[in-house]
Amino acid sequence: MTIPLRREAAPLRAQAVAVLRQQIVSGAYRPGERLVEKRLEQDLGVSRTVIREALRQLESQQLITLKPNVGPIVTVLTAENATHLYQVRAALEGTAARLAAEHATAEDVSSLRALIERFRVAGESGEPERLVTTKDEFYAALVAAAGNPVIEEMLGNVQARISLLRAYTLEVPGRATQSHAELSAVIDAIEARHPDLAESRTREHVRAAQAIALTHFAEAPPAAGAAPHTTTPPEATA
Questions:
Q1: Closest Cα to residue 232, out of 37, 1, 72?
Q2: pLDDT single digits (tens) 17-48
Q3: Domain ranges of the chain
Q4: Full-prediction pTM beyond 0.85?
Q5: Cα–Cα distance between 82 and 206 in angstroms, integer?
Q6: CATH architecture for residues 1-76+222-238
Protein backbone atom coordinates (compact mmCIF):
# COMPACT_ATOMS: atom_id res chain seq x y z
CA MET A 1 0.00 0.00 0.00
CA THR A 2 1.41 3.35 -1.02
CA ILE A 3 0.93 6.69 0.74
CA PRO A 4 0.50 9.32 -2.01
CA LEU A 5 0.59 12.90 -0.79
CA ARG A 6 -2.25 15.36 -1.21
CA ARG A 7 -1.78 18.16 -3.73
CA GLU A 8 -3.10 20.81 -1.38
CA ALA A 9 -2.41 22.84 1.77
CA ALA A 10 1.26 22.34 2.74
CA PRO A 11 3.85 22.13 -0.06
CA LEU A 12 4.70 18.59 -1.16
CA ARG A 13 8.16 18.84 0.37
CA ALA A 14 6.70 19.72 3.78
CA GLN A 15 4.23 16.84 3.49
CA ALA A 16 7.01 14.43 2.51
CA VAL A 17 9.12 15.57 5.48
CA ALA A 18 6.17 15.08 7.85
CA VAL A 19 5.40 11.57 6.55
CA LEU A 20 9.01 10.37 6.54
CA ARG A 21 9.66 11.92 9.96
CA GLN A 22 6.63 10.10 11.38
CA GLN A 23 7.81 6.79 9.93
CA ILE A 24 11.22 7.29 11.58
CA VAL A 25 9.82 8.45 14.91
CA SER A 26 7.31 5.58 15.03
CA GLY A 27 10.01 3.02 14.30
CA ALA A 28 8.58 1.96 10.92
CA TYR A 29 12.03 2.85 9.55
CA ARG A 30 14.62 1.43 11.94
CA PRO A 31 18.02 2.92 12.84
CA GLY A 32 20.58 1.95 10.22
CA GLU A 33 17.95 1.21 7.61
CA ARG A 34 18.71 2.39 4.10
CA LEU A 35 16.14 4.69 2.51
CA VAL A 36 15.97 4.07 -1.24
CA GLU A 37 14.94 7.21 -3.10
CA LYS A 38 13.15 5.42 -5.94
CA ARG A 39 11.10 3.37 -3.50
CA LEU A 40 10.18 6.50 -1.55
CA GLU A 41 9.14 8.21 -4.80
CA GLN A 42 6.77 5.33 -5.51
CA ASP A 43 5.43 5.13 -1.97
CA LEU A 44 4.71 8.85 -1.68
CA GLY A 45 3.83 9.45 -5.32
CA VAL A 46 6.15 12.44 -5.74
CA SER A 47 9.23 13.34 -7.77
CA ARG A 48 12.80 12.52 -6.87
CA THR A 49 13.43 16.24 -6.39
CA VAL A 50 10.79 16.37 -3.63
CA ILE A 51 12.23 13.26 -1.97
CA ARG A 52 15.77 14.63 -2.05
CA GLU A 53 14.68 17.96 -0.59
CA ALA A 54 12.80 16.12 2.18
CA LEU A 55 15.80 13.92 2.94
CA ARG A 56 18.07 16.96 3.13
CA GLN A 57 15.77 18.56 5.68
CA LEU A 58 15.64 15.36 7.75
CA GLU A 59 19.43 15.22 7.57
CA SER A 60 19.56 18.75 9.01
CA GLN A 61 17.41 17.47 11.90
CA GLN A 62 19.92 14.60 12.31
CA LEU A 63 17.25 11.94 11.79
CA ILE A 64 18.95 10.80 8.59
CA THR A 65 22.64 10.31 7.84
CA LEU A 66 24.20 10.23 4.36
CA LYS A 67 26.55 7.27 4.30
CA PRO A 68 29.28 7.18 1.62
CA ASN A 69 28.65 4.62 -1.12
CA VAL A 70 25.32 3.72 0.49
CA GLY A 71 23.10 6.79 0.53
CA PRO A 72 20.64 8.00 3.17
CA ILE A 73 20.07 5.79 6.22
CA VAL A 74 18.11 6.34 9.40
CA THR A 75 20.59 7.76 11.92
CA VAL A 76 22.17 5.31 14.32
CA LEU A 77 22.83 6.83 17.74
CA THR A 78 25.88 5.95 19.81
CA ALA A 79 25.84 5.59 23.58
CA GLU A 80 27.57 8.98 23.81
CA ASN A 81 24.95 10.58 21.54
CA ALA A 82 22.17 9.10 23.67
CA THR A 83 23.74 10.30 26.92
CA HIS A 84 23.99 13.86 25.64
CA LEU A 85 20.41 13.83 24.36
CA TYR A 86 19.01 12.49 27.63
CA GLN A 87 20.93 15.13 29.59
CA VAL A 88 19.28 17.87 27.53
CA ARG A 89 15.92 16.14 27.68
CA ALA A 90 16.09 15.97 31.49
CA ALA A 91 16.83 19.70 31.68
CA LEU A 92 14.05 20.69 29.28
CA GLU A 93 11.36 18.36 30.58
CA GLY A 94 12.30 19.11 34.17
CA THR A 95 11.91 22.82 33.53
CA ALA A 96 8.61 22.22 31.72
CA ALA A 97 7.28 20.27 34.71
CA ARG A 98 8.42 23.01 37.11
CA LEU A 99 6.65 25.68 35.06
CA ALA A 100 3.55 23.50 34.74
CA ALA A 101 3.41 23.20 38.53
CA GLU A 102 3.41 26.99 38.67
CA HIS A 103 0.99 27.73 35.82
CA ALA A 104 -1.13 24.66 34.94
CA THR A 105 -4.89 25.04 35.09
CA ALA A 106 -7.31 22.41 36.33
CA GLU A 107 -8.06 21.66 32.66
CA ASP A 108 -4.35 21.11 31.98
CA VAL A 109 -4.11 18.62 34.84
CA SER A 110 -7.23 16.78 33.65
CA SER A 111 -5.76 16.54 30.16
CA LEU A 112 -2.49 15.11 31.52
CA ARG A 113 -4.35 12.52 33.59
CA ALA A 114 -6.51 11.50 30.62
CA LEU A 115 -3.43 11.03 28.46
CA ILE A 116 -1.51 9.01 31.03
CA GLU A 117 -4.57 6.77 31.43
CA ARG A 118 -4.60 6.22 27.67
CA PHE A 119 -0.90 5.40 27.90
CA ARG A 120 -1.62 2.80 30.59
CA VAL A 121 -4.32 1.16 28.48
CA ALA A 122 -2.07 1.07 25.43
CA GLY A 123 0.65 -0.58 27.49
CA GLU A 124 -1.67 -3.23 28.89
CA SER A 125 -3.09 -4.02 25.46
CA GLY A 126 0.35 -4.29 23.88
CA GLU A 127 0.11 -1.47 21.33
CA PRO A 128 3.63 -0.06 20.92
CA GLU A 129 2.74 2.47 18.23
CA ARG A 130 -0.13 3.81 20.35
CA LEU A 131 2.23 3.96 23.33
CA VAL A 132 4.63 6.21 21.42
CA THR A 133 1.84 8.40 20.05
CA THR A 134 0.17 8.84 23.42
CA LYS A 135 3.44 9.62 25.16
CA ASP A 136 4.21 12.26 22.55
CA GLU A 137 0.78 13.77 23.22
CA PHE A 138 1.49 13.71 26.95
CA TYR A 139 4.73 15.67 26.51
CA ALA A 140 2.97 18.13 24.21
CA ALA A 141 0.32 18.69 26.88
CA LEU A 142 3.00 19.08 29.57
CA VAL A 143 4.84 21.73 27.56
CA ALA A 144 1.56 23.49 26.76
CA ALA A 145 0.80 23.63 30.48
CA ALA A 146 4.26 25.13 31.07
CA GLY A 147 3.45 27.95 28.67
CA ASN A 148 6.95 28.25 27.21
CA PRO A 149 7.06 27.90 23.39
CA VAL A 150 10.88 27.90 23.33
CA ILE A 151 10.94 24.69 25.39
CA GLU A 152 8.42 23.22 22.97
CA GLU A 153 10.63 23.99 19.98
CA MET A 154 13.84 22.70 21.56
CA LEU A 155 12.29 19.61 23.11
CA GLY A 156 10.64 18.65 19.84
CA ASN A 157 14.03 18.23 18.18
CA VAL A 158 15.51 16.32 21.11
CA GLN A 159 12.50 14.02 21.41
CA ALA A 160 12.58 13.25 17.70
CA ARG A 161 16.19 12.08 17.91
CA ILE A 162 15.60 10.13 21.11
CA SER A 163 12.66 8.44 19.38
CA LEU A 164 15.27 6.55 17.35
CA LEU A 165 15.72 4.46 20.50
CA ARG A 166 12.08 4.06 21.49
CA ALA A 167 11.60 0.96 19.39
CA TYR A 168 14.10 -0.68 21.77
CA THR A 169 13.26 0.89 25.14
CA LEU A 170 9.51 0.28 24.93
CA GLU A 171 10.16 -3.40 24.25
CA VAL A 172 11.67 -3.80 27.73
CA PRO A 173 9.21 -5.83 29.86
CA GLY A 174 7.52 -3.69 32.50
CA ARG A 175 8.84 -0.38 31.18
CA ALA A 176 5.41 0.92 30.16
CA THR A 177 4.02 0.19 33.63
CA GLN A 178 7.01 1.84 35.31
CA SER A 179 6.76 4.85 33.00
CA HIS A 180 3.07 5.24 33.82
CA ALA A 181 3.83 5.26 37.55
CA GLU A 182 6.66 7.79 37.15
CA LEU A 183 4.60 10.20 35.07
CA SER A 184 1.56 9.85 37.33
CA ALA A 185 3.79 10.99 40.18
CA VAL A 186 4.84 14.00 38.10
CA ILE A 187 1.18 14.93 37.55
CA ASP A 188 0.52 14.61 41.28
CA ALA A 189 3.31 17.10 41.97
CA ILE A 190 2.01 19.49 39.31
CA GLU A 191 -1.51 19.35 40.72
CA ALA A 192 -0.17 19.91 44.25
CA ARG A 193 1.74 23.01 43.04
CA HIS A 194 5.17 21.68 44.05
CA PRO A 195 7.60 22.93 41.36
CA ASP A 196 10.72 21.38 42.94
CA LEU A 197 9.07 17.98 43.27
CA ALA A 198 7.61 18.09 39.77
CA GLU A 199 11.03 18.84 38.32
CA SER A 200 12.88 16.22 40.37
CA ARG A 201 10.36 13.50 39.55
CA THR A 202 10.55 14.35 35.85
CA ARG A 203 14.32 14.17 35.91
CA GLU A 204 14.10 10.78 37.67
CA HIS A 205 11.78 9.57 34.91
CA VAL A 206 14.25 10.66 32.21
CA ARG A 207 17.17 9.07 34.08
CA ALA A 208 15.27 5.78 34.22
CA ALA A 209 14.69 5.91 30.46
CA GLN A 210 18.35 6.77 29.91
CA ALA A 211 19.49 3.78 31.97
CA ILE A 212 17.40 1.44 29.81
CA ALA A 213 18.70 3.00 26.60
CA LEU A 214 22.32 2.64 27.69
CA THR A 215 21.72 -0.97 28.70
CA HIS A 216 20.54 -1.60 25.16
CA PHE A 217 23.83 -0.27 23.80
CA ALA A 218 25.79 -2.52 26.14
CA GLU A 219 23.84 -5.68 25.35
CA ALA A 220 22.66 -5.34 21.76
CA PRO A 221 23.76 -2.22 19.89
CA PRO A 222 21.61 -1.48 16.84
CA ALA A 223 23.10 -2.63 13.58
CA ALA A 224 24.47 0.10 11.33
CA GLY A 225 23.80 -1.94 8.21
CA ALA A 226 22.45 -0.59 5.00
CA ALA A 227 19.62 -2.94 4.14
CA PRO A 228 17.08 -1.13 1.97
CA HIS A 229 13.55 -0.53 3.16
CA THR A 230 11.47 -3.13 1.36
CA THR A 231 8.07 -2.87 2.97
CA THR A 232 5.67 -0.06 2.32
CA PRO A 233 5.00 1.98 5.48
CA PRO A 234 1.46 2.23 6.87
CA GLU A 235 -0.61 5.21 5.76
CA ALA A 236 0.22 8.37 7.68
CA THR A 237 -1.27 11.83 7.85
CA ALA A 238 1.06 14.55 6.64
A1: 1
A2: 989 988 887 778 888 999 999 999 999 999 99
A3: 1-76+222-238, 79-219
A4: no
A5: 12
A6: Orthogonal Bundle (1.10)
